[in-house]
Design a protein that fits this description.
Elements: E1 3-14, E2 17-28, E3 32-36, H1 43-50, E4 58-63, H2 68-71, E5 75-78, H3 92-97, H4 101-104, H5 112-124, H6 140-152, E6 158-162, H7 170-185, E7 189-193, H8 200-203, E8 206-211, E9 213-219, H9 220-223, H10 226-232, E10 258-259, E11 262-263
Parallel strand pairs: 3-7, 3-8, 5-6, 6-7
Antiparallel strand pairs: 1-2, 1-4, 8-9, 10-11
Length: 271
Amino acid sequence: MSAAVEVRDLTVAYRERPVLWDIDLIVPEGVLMAIVGPNGAGKTTLIKAVLGLVKPAAGEILIYGKSFASQQRRVGYVPQRGSVDWDFPTNVLDVVTMGLYGRIGWFRRPGRADRTKALHALEKVGMADHADRQISQLSGGQQQRVFLARALVQDADVYLMDEPFQGVDATTERAIIALLRELRSDGKTVVVVHHDLQTVPEYFDEVLLLNVRRLASGPVGDVFTEENLRKTYGGRVGFVGAPAGSPPIANRGPLPERLGGVSRSREPSRN
C-alpha cells in the first residue's frame, strides 16, 4: 500500500522546547487514521507541520512522495472550529466557495459552476438549505458541517481534520463519520485529531498514539492496546476488568465511560 503522507525524523520546537520529537509516520493511502494523545501531546502541531503552517526544526514531510508545496492542491484541511472567527460577516455559501480559491485564484470571482459545486458540497453535509444564512447564526454542529463542506469542495486526495467531532451533537457526529467513510470508499485518505478513545475502534482503520514522541502507529487492532495507551497517557488511563494478556482494545468492545481521568466527553484542546 502506497503512502499518502510520510513524515521522517520530524522535530518541532517552540522557544527551544520540543513539541514534537523525532517523529516517523507513514499514513497509507485510502485509510481513516486517528491521531490520539493527551493535551499538549503535539497533535495539532503535527497537522500544522504537514500543512507547512509551522516550521520544523528538523525532518521531512512528503505528500505522495513529494513536498507539500508541490502537492498543496491535493490536501484539504478542516481546522478546529474554535480557531475561526465566526462573527465575520459572510454567509454559508461564500465560506464554502472559499475552498475553491486555491484552484481558481483569489482575484477571480467564482462563477456559476463554482457556486454549483459549493452547493453540492453543502448538500452532502445536509446544509444546502442554510446557504444564504450568516455563519454567526449557525449552531456549533452546523458550523462544523460548513467547514467540512469547504474541505469537500476542494476535491482533495488527503484530508487533515483537527477535532471535527468536538462540540457536535450525536446526529452531526453520525453524519460526519458517514461522510468520512464515503471519502475512504472513494479512495481518499483522512487523518483526524481525535479525543474520544471509545470510538477509535469503531471509526478508524489506523491510529497514531502521540505524546511529543510517536508511541505507536498502525492498524487499530494491532496498536490500540491497553499497554500502548498507558504509555501514551503516562499511566493515567485505567481499564476496568481488563485481565493481563487480554486482546487489543479494538477487539474487546466499548471502553468504560471514564478512563482514569480521560473522559469520553471532548476535552478542551491545548496542543
